[in-house]
Amino acid sequence: MEIGVKVFVEDLLTGDVQHVSSAYLTFVAVSQDGSRIPLTPVVAETPDEQRRFLQAEERRQYRLARRS
Please, where are the H alpha helices in the chain? Predict the structure, then answer.
């Protein structure tokens, strides 16, 4: 599962908010013995979800290509 994360900082005196970092984190479900557990697939329904799903697959293919 890939999760997108955005980090913001807020100046408590002025209330100004700034984006400081973005990242994609990959998580894998594992059993007690450490083997991978398949999860129920997420269904991309909206155009935005479909776009994000395709972009995530592109990032996955890039990571896999770098391994070999």
Answer: 47-67
